[in-house]
Each structure stands twice: as structure tokens, then as C-alpha cells.
Amino acid sequence: MRSILAVLLENEAGALSRVVGLFAQRNYNIESLTVAPTEDSTLSRLTLTTSGDQQTITQIMKQLDKLVEVVRVVDLCEGEHVERELLLIKVRAEGAARAEIKRSADIFRGQIVDVTAQTYTIQLVGPSDKLDAFICAIDDSGVNATILEVARSGVSGVGRGDQVLAL
Amino acid sequence: MTEMLSGGDMLIRALQDEGVEYIFGYPGGSALHIYDAIFRQQKIEHILVRHEQAATHMADGYARSTGDPGVVLVTSGPGATNAITGIATAYMDSIPMVVISGQVPSDLIGTDAFQETDMVGISRPVVKHSFMVRDASEIPAVVKKAFHIATTGRPGPVVIDVPKDTTDPSATYAYEYPSTVAMRSYNPAFEGDSQQVNRAIEALLAAKRPVFYVGGGVIQADAEDALRALVRAANVPVTSTLMGLGAYPGSDPQSLGMLGMHGTYEANMAMHETDLIFALGARFDDRVTNNPDKFSPKATIVHLDVDSASVDKIICSDIALVGDAGWALNALWDAYQARDAERDAGAKEKQQQDMAQWWEQINQWRSAHGLNHNMQPAAGQSILPQLAIQTLYRVTKGDAFVTSDVGQHQMFAAQYYHFDEPRRWINSGGLGTMGFGLPSAMGVQMGNPESVVACVTGEGSFMMNMQELSTCLQYGLPIKIINLNNQALGMVKQWQDMQYGGRHSQSTYSDSLPDFKTLVEAFGHVGIRVSDAMELDAAMEAAFSEENKNRLVFVDVWVDPHEHVYPMAIKGGAMNDMILSKTQEASS
């Protein structure tokens, strides 16, 4: 089972290392991790994706909650939520491949944000599986498009509707 | 008028304001401003150890026996790393402790400076929390928070790393010790859900074969009175973890003794056959449950713990009670009395019959394979370690503080010394730290100067921290050390006997042991050696005699080196799968 855990954390030196250390120490996996300050400069918001059975996820949340600098933890997957990830992908785009890659990017509503004679850099935002699908589409396009570099931001998310994670 | 103090003085003043009696520590470069502040005051006594690990174990023994947090002060680098084993020991057993480590000056951090180590980083997995002082003005608030975190909720060690520049005597600050702590991210639950309390009591009144499984949490919360009242009123059997011994009186007939890997036959059988487990301040450690998949197949499980992460971690509970054990046991006791008063005579009688049957079963187990608490010495025979503990128990009238190290002697002490009061049995349960016994006994003696303190150890464990004999002389600590000398790492050897075809890989050293009697005499203490069972009594009496009241006495008891600890859980089995002796097994 995949979970997206959103964590409000005191914006203090060393707080992030406690979260990351907890996962290593207790043998939990982290699939992606993203962290940045919130509108309240004393708080950081950390989003991490992990997987495990229900008991493991519950245990992860309890262990996170025990960390003194963790203010709140929720599993966004417990309810309706919006999740987004940003992908920047640099592709070798020459000859016939150039047009094909552009078409694929349009289909996925990606934007070409940097261009050279040989490459495109495409930006794409969406749920992680859409990003996976786009990478597959480029890989399998059959027009000799070589992926040069992939940079993904990791998942961010919020609950739908009136659900708010704040103090 | 507000006083102007340097960072170093503020640190020590804050400890005074926190009510600290003793600091256990060892000086070094990065901590010297702090040590100078200690020199210029009288309220707190600093105890100078011979190795920083011992300082942490002393603070730990002090904390376990008094309930007050232990305080440690070490320098940066090796001072800090030497403290880690003791911090981890306290962490695993949830012991309140504040460890202050000197650090290189802020502008040198990260430069691989002399005696620099990332203490916050190294200690991170074994502390409840840690602080790095960024600015001297933070010191009073940081100390306040550290003590608050260490002593509330599930207690644990807290590290304060103090860069040398923040204790500089040339810069002063207005000192004020905060009276309260407000931390939005730290609010441990004290009171739990009273509905769950009622459900637990309903389950207890409906059970035919209930058992209470009591852990260190009950001792931490000083909840023994309510526990004892409830246990006696409900006539339930009580078994205890290694950490929980003494919460319920060990010599009471309702006590089944310790459970688990080396628990008593009757305790483990009761845990397997029960229909209701009240787990109170215990965490279903692997040394208790054996194979969790085969654990107590018929039981409804009530689990009380102050740490919600302990609940449903290993064994899923049916009724979870998250909160302080003191709150919970008082609430359970109140609910029991209220509910019991409402019951009709028929229901009460029915339950009494059920309990009588359950006790009959337990007493059968007890008489079949219970521990023999009445061993007698026989002429010409070597001393059995169990007999040594029984002799210690008799000579100290069951009233000593007993610390132990780790291994066979620890299990024998837990099995054969009945602890009737909490905080009397002091040992490293979770981490299993050899070398804990002597320094923790020193901390116990500091915290309880009028009490008899015995350290049950083995020659292997003792040699891990024996340098502290020097500290004992310096501070006049009259500890009685009972060394069960089997000339081997006994528990390792036992496993090698049982699981490795008797191949004693690196577990024996009989031809290179020191003469312990002469050794302790060289440290200025009293040494006694005994190897004849018929002389054991006299040796033990001499150790605890009036003549030696103010002396440290080391009794080197040469015990039968072939003895194993039984019962022993059969690996991968249920709780009723036990090896009972070298020739006997019990299995489901």
C-alpha cells in the first residue's frame, strides 16, 4: 500500500535529519521526499511517500509523531487528495524525433522550457504515475529519442475540500 | 535585579534551579568553562568517574532508584562517544537522563577540529531528543526543555551539546530560569480514554483465566499501589518482565515471577493458556513473546502504554489504553470497585469459581516445574549460582537494592531474588549492556546513601568497568559486589553448549583471570574469595557485616561453570515451548 505522509515540522536545524534517520533506523522505505518552509516561517512541510501494510504505515506515523520536532502528521491517502510532482526531463531531440517528442509533450500537457539544436528540456506536472507514463512514452516512442537526464521533485499533496493541515 | 551570568554559569545555575543534586562526569577541553563554573559553586556535587561510560550508568542507576533524572557532563569527541553506550542503555529502558556534552567552539564545528565529533548526529538514534546550543542566551530555556522532555511521557535521555564559545566566561547575559515550558510539538498524553478503562474492566470481570503482565512502565509511573490493590481484589496472577520486577511483590503468592525467555514455567504457561492479558507498561519485547505468531492464541489483549507507538507494534491489542500508567491503574482500580459493587452475588460466585480453577492449574504448573527457592549447600560440591543468589537474598533480608550486569548472573538474580518493592532491581534490560552493574550500583548508592546496595555481576561484565573501583574509594561508596565467577562468558557459553555443539568459540579465559581478591585490595577495598558451598554463608555474612558496613566488599564466588539458566524458551516456539533442564523439555 502506498502512502503519502504530510508532516508539519518545526523549521529548525537538524529536524529533517531526525525524520530521515528514523526511516533508516527502523528500516522503513522512503520513495520520495520533499521539504520546504510554509507560509509560517517557523514551520516546514515535508511530504514523503512510502509503502507498507496498514500496520507498518500506522507504526511509521506513530514513530514520526513521537519525534519532538514533528508537529502534525497525516496520511493523505486516507482521504480524497490532490497530489502533484514536477518532472524536468532532458531529451536528445534530433531529426524526426524532434517533432515526435514535441507531440508527446503536448499530449501530456508538458511544456518545453529549454531548447538547443540537439535537446529539449520538458517540464511536466502531475501525479507520479502520469510522470512515469510520460517517461515511458518518450522511451518507447520508437523515434530514437534518448533520455539524457531526469529530475523529479518528489510528491507534494494536499487534502481535497475543507481538509486543512495546519496548526 | 536580574543577575548577569556567563553561559557556563547559566548552565550550572539552571541545573541548580532544576534541583539537580549530582553531576556524573569527566572534564576535558571543550567543557572546561563549565567545569570552572562547577568549581565556583557548592550546591551541586560533581562525581568524577574514570570513564565516561560509567558516568552515564551512574546517572542511570541514580535515576532508576530515585525516580529523578540523572545528569551527565562530558567533554567533546571521545568524552561524548564514550557516553553513547550509557545513553543507549537509558534509551532502551526509558530512563530519564540529561547528558551535557562539551563541543568545540561554534566557528570550528565542521572543520574536523581537535576532539570534534558530531554528538547530536551520533546520539540521534539513541536519544529521546537533543539540542545544540546556538547562542548562550538560549541556555536556560534549553535546559528547562531538556528536563521536561526527559521526564515526561515515555521518559528517556536528552543530549545538550554545548559549543565552548557559548560558555565563555567573558560574555554575560541576564539569567532567568523559565518556570514553565510550552512546546507546540510535544504534548505527551497523560490521561487516556476512560471508555477503554471501562471496557478493560468488563473484560477482566468476564475472564476465566486472566493474567497481568507488568513492565517497567508501572515502576516509572510509581503506580504500584493501584496495581497491588487491583491485583489483590481481583485475585489475578501477576507476571513481570525483567524491567517490571518489584512493581508487584515478588514474594507474594500471586506473583508468578518473571516471564519470557528465562521466565518461570508457571508464568509462561499462564501466558500461553490465558484468556485475558492485561499488559501494563510493557511492550511485548521479543524476549517475552518468543514467536509473536504463536503468542498466547486464546487471549484478549488489553494493552496500556504511555507510548502509543508501543501499542499494536508487535502484538495487536483488543483494548488499547494510551496514557500514564499511574492514571490508568488508578482509573482501572476505581472502575473495578464501582463495577464490582454492582454485580450480583451469583456473578461474583461464578467468577470466584473460575478463578479458583485457574489458580489450581497455575499451582499445578508451579509445583511441577517451578523454581526451587530453597536450595541447600552440600559438602564437597561446587557452588551453584542460584544458591549464591538465594544466600544473598537471605543475608540482605530481601531488602537490598540489587544492580546487575548482563548474562547468566543477571537471569539468576532476576529469578531467585524476590523484589518486593519497585526501583530495587536495577539492570540493563533492553540494550543488555555488560559493564552496567558496578557504575549503576554507584549511582544507586549516591541516591540512597543509607541503603544496602549489592551488585550481582560476573567476571566478564565486571572487567568491562572495573576501573570505577577507584571512584568508589574516592567517594566512599560501600557497595557489595557479588561476582558469580564461572571463568567464562557464561551466557555465550550456554548458547554454544546448546546450539553450537559445545564449541566454546572465544568465550573462555580461565588461565588469564586476575586474582580478584588482590585486585580489589589494590584499589583499597575488601576482597573475599569463596569456592566451597559450605563456606558461602559465612562469606556473604562477612560482606554485609557491621564491620564492613562502610567498605566496598567484593565477594568472588567461584560457581559451577557448567550450570545453565533454565527455563529457556525454545527458539521460534510459543511461550509454552521451554527447555526445563539439560535433559527436559516442555512443548505444546
Structural write-up:
The complex is a heterodimer of chains A (167) and B (588). Chain A is α+β, with helices and mostly antiparallel strands. In chain A, strands 5, 6, 7, 8 and 9 form a five-stranded antiparallel β-sheet that branches. Chain A is built from four helices and nine strands; from the N terminus they run E-H-E-E-H-E-E-H-E-E-H-E-E. Chain A starts with a strand and ends in an 8-residue tail after the last strand. The longest helix of chain A is centred in the middle third of the chain and has 13 residues, at 54-66. Chain B is an alpha/beta fold and 588 residues long. Helices cover 37% and strands 17% of the residues of chain B. Chain B starts with a strand and ends with a strand. The mean pLDDT of chain B is 97. Chains A and B meet through helix 1 and helix 2 of A and strand 6 of B.
Instruction: Give the CA-CA distance, first to last residue of chain B.
Output: 74 Å
Low-confidence stretches of chain A: none
Q: Which radius of gyration of chain A do the C-alpha atoms yield?
A: 19 Å
Strands in their spatial order, largest beta sheet of chain B: 3-2-4-5-7-6
Characterize the overall form of chain A. Answer: elongated
Broad shape of chain B: globular
Distance between the termini of chain A: 28 Å
Percent range of helical residues of chain A = 25-40%
User: Segments of chain B where pLDDT lies below 50 for 5+ residues?
Assistant: none
Largest sheet of chain A: 5 strands, antiparallel
Main interface: chain pair and counts? A-B, 19 and 20 residues
Q: What structural category do the secondary elements of chain A indicate?
A: alpha+beta
The residue fraction in helices of chain B comes out at 25-40%
Q: Note the run of SSEs of chain A as H and E.
A: EHEEHEEHEEHEE
User: On the 0-100 scale, what is the average pLDDT of chain B?
Assistant: 97
The tally of strands of chain B reads 23
> How would you characterize the largest beta sheet of chain B?
6 strands, parallel
Structural class of chain B: alpha/beta
